[in-house]
Write a structure and sequence with these properties.
Blueprint lengths: L2 H13 L1 H20 L2 H14 L11 E7 L6 E6 L16 E4 L6 E4 L5 E4 L4 E6 L4 E7 L1 E5 L8 E5 L2 E5 L3 E7 L2 E8 L2 E5 L6 H4 L5 E3 L3 E6 L5 E4 L2 H4 L6 E8 H9 L6 E3 L1 H4 L2 E7 L3 H11 L2 E5 L5 E5 L11
Parallel strand pairs: 7-9, 18-21
Antiparallel strand pairs: 1-2, 3-6, 4-5, 5-8, 6-7, 8-11, 9-10, 10-13, 11-12, 12-15, 13-14, 15-16, 17-19, 20-21
Length: 325
């Protein structure tokens, strides 16, 4: 807004008490939207719109009122509406060219696949996609991915990782590769994890290898060993895709290793510090802030080295914590 626009707006607001009340109502509406709409909800709306394809040349039915904003002079009130049309199976692309998605060592990225599925790739990850008319196939070559699968019962969504396959319909789950270890965490829906057949006898050798997961379960598979399934807090375990990491009564060393995955400058600590336990929620990529908070919670002190690293050391009994308000 120009200076003249601001003056005109102030004159309009002062001209009537109803104008001032209208502005307060709009501001309250936007405040509620800011506090209640989560990132995953916005991504779901975006996925639905993309999957629906071009809208026909007719007035769409109004699905929801997004909010209002006082925009002009003389009492004009501009109201914005969002119209979302549910995707139709016929509108979803059946076949797409093979595509590779890659993230760097310090990068996370969310991509929308041709069917409307959302995939958030963690740092240093590689994902290949190959959609056919029969199935939606993707391969996690390296790293970690969080999948929010668009529903389409006629075409299963299959993630290949190492020698395993994760088969899903409409669901949310996380797949992480770490060395020769694969981890699957199911947030909602259902998935089946089994082995990919490498020879004609493989289905008979591993006929009991298929595992169905329920929401809140974690599957860990490594080498030829039978997969282990345990209960977990799925939302906490997958919080990385929203930019947070959550620790609950966890060794400080394990937390440091996890946070260092996302940091350009590492957190360094000796073994005595790494054995301490704590709980907390931290933003990814802020090692300095992590050090400042930890020294308030535990008997440690945090110092910054000239190379950018954050060093944690045991605090002597005579030392007082350094506050960083």
């Amino acid at each position: 807004m120009s200076t003249e626009d601001e003056r005109a707006f102030e004159r309009w607001r002062a001209a009537s008490e109803s104008h001032a009340h209208a502005l307060e109502d709009v501001q309250a509406t936007w405040s509620r939207l800011d506090s209640t709409i989560e990132a995953h909800e916005l991504r779901s709306l975006r996925a639905a719109a993309l999957a629906a394809g071009p809208a026909p040349l007719r007035w769409p039915r109004l699905a929801a009122m997004a909010g209002a904003f006082v925009a002009g002079v003389g009492g004009a009130l501009l109201v914005w509406y969002i119209s979302v049309r549910a995707p139709e199976p016929a509108a979803v692309a059946a076949v797409s060219a093979p595509t590779r998605y890659v993230t760097a060592h310090n990068q996370r990225s969310t991509v929308t696949l041709p069917d409307g599925t959302l995939v958030t790739l963690n740092l240093d990850s590689v994902l290949d996609t190959h959609f056919t008319a029969a199935e939606r196939a993707v391969s996690l070559i390296r790293g970690q991915g969080f999948f929010e699968v668009a529903k389409n019962p006629a075409r299963p969504f299959i993630v290949s990782a190492f020698d395993r396959r994760i088969r899903a319909l409409g669901t949310k789950f996380d797949v992480r590769l770490d060395g020769d270890r694969m981890e699957v965490v199911l947030v909602e829906g259902r998935v089946r994890v089994d082995r990919r057949a490498s020879s004609p006898v493989d289905p008979f050798m591993h006929r009991h290898a298929a595992v169905d997961l329920a929401p809140g379960q974690r599957l860990v598979a490594a080498d030829d060993a039978a997969p282990a399934v345990t209960e977990t807090d799925a939302v906490r375990a997958t919080s990385w895709h929203e930019g947070w990491v959550v620790f609950e009564d966890q060794a400080l060393g394990d937390a440091i290793d996890e946070l260092n995955r996302y940091a350009d400058h590492p957190i360094v600590a000796d073994e005595a510090v790494r054995q301490l336990h704590f709980s907390g929620v931290f933003r990814i990529g802020e090692p300095g802030r992590f050090g400042a908070v930890i020294q308030e919670l535990l008997p440690v002190r945090a110092e910054s080295r000239t190379d950018g690293a954050t060093v944690l050391a045991l605090r002597l009994a005579s030392e007082r914590p350094t506050r960083t308000d």
